[in-house]
Amino acid sequence: MASVLRTTLSSPIAAVGAGGNGGGGQVLTITLDRPNVKNATNNQMFIELTHALEAAASNDDIGVVVLTATGDYFSSGADFRDDTAADYMHLECKDKPVGAFMRAMVQFPKIIVAAVNGHCVGVGVTMLLHAGRHPSPFVSELRAAT
């Protein structure tokens, strides 16, 4: 099965490394890449997002993660053609890929910036709630660099 994410590591940004966020100066961009279904989330996407966040959390060279997407939607919510939608219907989804992803977002120790490129629905909105929860005076530098 093909990956539903693209990741890119940028050149260091000195200001981020000096920002006291415990991370280095590199920016990891994670791109949701299912434009044919308007970046609808499914279990594969949650698993890949979780792995990408966990890897970034443990990589001292990464100070910031940018979440973005291809196409005209940041996310159209759950892909109802997948078992993911059934997971959302239960309050106890902690043992499902969506639950693991939510834990990874909540526990992420570094800055998350959302570069929203279009409409955003469902869990895409939930992702936005976790972006920017570490206030940073360096957002303007990030914007200039990306």
Tell me what you see in this structure.
The structure is a single chain. This protein has a single domain (5-145), classed as 2-enoyl-CoA Hydratase, Chain A, domain 1. 31% of the residues are buried. It is globular and about 40 Å long. α2 links the parallel β2 and β3. The strands form 2 sheets. Strands 1-2-3-5 form a 4-stranded mixed β-sheet, covered by helices on one side. The chain has helices at residues 14-17, 43-58, 84-88, 97-107, 123-130, 139-145; strands at 5-9, 26-32, 62-69, 73-75, 111-114, 119-120. By secondary structure, it is α/β, with parallel strands linked by helices.
Shape: globular
**CATH top level class name:** Alpha Beta
Q: Can you tell me the CATH superfamily?
A: 2-enoyl-CoA Hydratase, Chain A, domain 1
Uncertain runs are 13-22, 135-146
Name its key features.
6 strands; two-stranded parallel ribbon; 2-enoyl-CoA Hydratase, Chain A, domain 1; 146 residues; four-stranded mixed β-sheet; alpha/beta; disordered C terminus; globular
